[in-house]
Design a protein that fits this description.
Helix content is 46%, strand content 9%. By secondary structure, it is α/β, with parallel strands linked by helices. It folds into two domains: 5-186, Response regulator (Rossmann fold), CATH 3.40.50; 193-294, Methyltransferase, Methionine Synthase (B12-binding Domains), Chain A, domain 1 (Orthogonal Bundle). α7 packs antiparallel against α8 (227-240) and α8 (227-240) packs across α10. It starts with a strand and ends in a 5-residue tail after the last helix. Residues 1-179 form the KaiA N-terminal domain.
């Protein structure tokens, strides 16, 4: 199905299938369900380059399935569903925060996402997060590879870092080819979002964006062939940092105040500054369009 994500599900019973079907739209997800581990593994092996994410809701088959995936050298995005309540889930970071480093508490691989069965309505979000985290996953350094994932014993079969990079590259390219602009979303790293930066990093980012915005304003009404590219670069920087529109407005207002002070010193009218509202409107429109085209519906 063009534009859809391919998901393989392993569950202990078929009861989960209807529940998943209620929360995953057929327009966006092509889901293949399995209760038999051997059939699931054969399918994963057969279509491994087309698969986008795995979903496990099988407490009895989970660890044997993961062992088999290691033997096959397969590392893929994954969501693991538990029957526990959210408060009793294994120690994992919240869905809103991506993890790009190895963790000693993971079961399959460090970018996995866990979900309580009571949170099944969030399955679409969890899948998107699992893919985003996987694309930002850092290969486990060889010095730490002796630290075994939780309860998994077959360490000699853990895929090498170069295989992980190949999988990430294939998935990234595939998302771009199949999902077009939508694939941009999966390349965002939430750990680099503006709200997660420290005070110094935030100020450095705002200073850089303000300088970019100044160049855009000064050339906006000039006959410049670079203005569209400059706007795209500014909007992309804002998008990947998940910067609020209010911060853009603040940058605009501060810059207009600077220009106003300069015009007053020169004895010139400030009325010209009103025209630059078009610059702000144009940039916000570009940003809104980028969000509209790239953020999955479930988000």
């Amino acid at each position: 199905m063009s534009g859809s994500l391919t998901i393989a599900v392993l569950a202990d019973s078929a009861d989960l299938f209807a529940l998943l079907g209620q929360n995953l739209s057929v327009e966006r997800y092509a889901v293949k369900y399995f209760t038999d581990r051997a059939e699931f593994l054969d399918y994963v092996e057969r279509v491994k380059y087309e698969l986008d994410c795995l979903v496990f809701y099988s407490e009895h088959q989970l660890l044997p399935a993961i062992e088999a995936l290691y033997v096959r050298g397969l590392i893929l995005p994954v969501v693991i569903v538990h029957r526990l309540s959210p408060d009793n889930l294994p120690s994992h970071e919240p869905l809103a925060v991506a993890n790009s480093s190895a963790s000693s508490s993971y079961i399959y691989q460090p970018s996995e996402v866990t979900l309580a069965v009571t949170q099944m309505s969030e399955m679409g979000i969890a899948i998107d997060k699992a893919i985003a985290k996987f694309l930002n996953l850092t290969p486990i350094p060889s010095a730490t590879r002796q630290e075994r994932p939780a309860k998994v014993e077959t360490q000699q079969h853990i895929p090498e870092p170069n295989f992980l990079r190949q999988q990430q590259s294939r998935l990234s390219q595939k998302l771009t080819e199949r999902l077009g602009y939508l694939a941009v979303y999966y390349r965002r790293n939430p750990s680099q979002f503006f709200r997660h930066l420290d005070r110094r990093q935030k100020q450095e980012l705002l200073d850089a964006l303000k300088l970019q915005y100044r160049h855009i304003v000064l050339e906006y009404f000039a006959d410049s062939t670079q203005i569209d590219l400059q706007i795209d670069e500014f909007v992309s920087a804002v998008f990947f940092r998940d910067l609020a529109v209010s911060e853009i407005v603040k940058i605009h207002m501060e810059l207009m105040e600077e220009f106003s002070d300069q015009l007053k010193l020169e004895g010139r009218s400030e009325e010209i500054l009103l025209d630059y509202r078009l610059t702000l409107i144009d940039i916000i429109a570009h940003l809104c369009e980028m969000y509209r085209r790239s953020i999955p519906r479930e988000m």
